[in-house]
Amino acid sequence: MSAAQTRGGYIGQAWLVILLALAYGGALAGVQTAVSGKIAANKRAETFDVIPDLVAGADKAKTAEFVVEGTDGKQARVYRVFDADGDHVGWVLPGEGQGFADRIELLIGLDARLDTITGLYVLEQKETPGLGNYITSEDFRARFAGKPTDQPVAIVKSEPQADNEIRALTGATVSSESVAAIVNGTIANLKEPVRQQAAAAGAGPAIPAATR
User: Fold this and answer.
1) Maximum distance among all alpha carbons in the chain?
2) pTM to 2 decimals?
3) Residue 31 confidence (pLDDT)
4) Are 141 and 119 in contact (CB under 8 A)?
5) Cα within 13 Å of Cα(110), Cβ side
6) 67: CB partners within 8 A, 6+ apart
7) Helices (H) and strands (E) in the chain, counts
8) Which of 6-20, 114-128, 140-154 comes out lowest in average pLDDT?
């Protein structure tokens, strides 16, 4: 086979690879577009289902949902939580960031004054099975409850000594630190904007609530 024929064969194969890549890429993008709405709806429904676990006394049916602009300039959907009598009992803030293996999405429960963490839920994660994915365990998530929001949560490998310290998961320090970083970043980003918007709206559920 001549050099020209060999070069022509390579070019033909290259085009075939490019066309297949474009076809598969287009197919994946189409699937993603088709299911993204369903995924978002499922996450929203899951969020409302776990709100009573994140804030004591919460009635998910009375939860008000609204959009607030964080200090990073981006909009976030947050949840103002009420009990069955209509009393404001807390908040749920969404947070996300990079974990050891992939993105982690969290829901962070706070008391009505935004001073204390009341609960933590892992909405999405792809951490290492048998190690990092223990961030979803009740034991680990419970370590965040009761921590103050006026100082960042700190991950330690020994028994916690300070109010803001949380013991890391054994063998999964990076995943533990990733969760703490997301919690700290979310609170730093949304706490004051939420407080200001709530104050402007008054004590009752007057903040515009989204249609469920």
Assistant:
1) 85
2) 0.80
3) 67
4) yes
5) 27
6) 75, 76, 77, 78
7) 3, 7
8) 6-20
